[in-house]
Design a protein that fits this description.
It contains twelve helices and 14 strands. The chain folds into three domains: about 140 residues, Rossmann fold; about 140 residues, Argininosuccinate synthetase, chain A, domain 2 (Alpha-Beta Complex); about 30 residues, no CATH class.
Amino acid sequence: MSKNFKKIVLAYSGGLDTSIILKWLQETYDCDVVTFTADLGQREELDIAHQKAEAAGVKEIFIKDLREEFARDFVFPMFRANAIYEGEYLLGTSIARPLIAKHLIEVARECNADAISHGATGKGNDQIRFELGAYALNPDIKIIAPWREWDLLSRQKLMEYAESKNIKVDFANQGRKSPYSMDANLLHISYEGDDLEDPWSEPTESMWRWTSSPEKAPDSPTNLVLQYEKGDIVAIDGKALSPAEIMESLNKIAGDNGIGRSDIVENRYVGMKSRGCYETPAGSLMIKAHRAIESITLDKEVSHMKDELMPKYAEMIYNGLWWSPEREALQALIDTSQENVNGEVRLKLFKGNVMVTGRRSEKNSLFDQKIATFEDDGGSYDQKDASGFIVLNSLRLKLWARGKQKK
């Protein structure tokens, strides 16, 4: 790759890895480096990132509050699809990457940079998500992935580099910091590495940050009502909230009740299996409640079609294809299906469990109590009609059975 860059935009967190990358870029490419930090609700002090970038000589520092955009334009559309990867993963990291890629490209355009850089390793999915997203939005952008170029391939080498370049590292707190590689945003917090690399090793209770253990959760249940408009939650217990506020509130409510923990071995896009632990409190409520409101507002065949398409949609997001034409086409279909997904869902939360205790839709419910009742339906449904239905549907089975008898 050519090293003749005028300016590079770095996705910067202020942590050890991206602080080292910042210095490495400055020295290796001998050009201005711009830092971009996204506030996605990760509950970190972002002023520290600004101070560290400034101390490193960065002249252009971008910190953007993207919480509402993240919830409204990325998380909520994904949950309209009931997306879940390999039956367990609610895609908390995956769905954040296309938004970060979008703003990396925007910042690069704004400050006339000709390259962007990220801190994702060469073993993981994030390098793919960042780079596919960036190329989809600007096919001419140049991308620098330090982990695929340098020889700082161990934690010890990183620490030695930091020391040699006078990059401030809080050595006194190194032993008290989490040993895990973590990623956090409004939707989740993830943990990988250290003892989790053994898939038989049980996570320690001290690892979890957002949720109470089910054993220590309240001894009485929490009840709440979620209001839906076109497939999106718009209010909790009658109080209208913005998408980000909804997620923050549900994270707190669900987390207090021990809801949202998962321990998964997943298949990475690059081919290897990876074990990760996740806390997704709000998402665990959202997917349960969304399926509940769809159960009374969606036509049977539309619902089943969505279920058939969902794994492919989830795989697109997991594999970094949010900005692809196929995801956008599928999103249009999903969004059309949500026009009548309006109403309310009542949930009961208790010691790690989420239970649907009611669902209703005044204008869009397809549930007809007169037809479904076990009591006298007053002629709404003629049970004799079922005979012909069964005769027609059994025809192929009869023919198949007779064919077997001939053998």
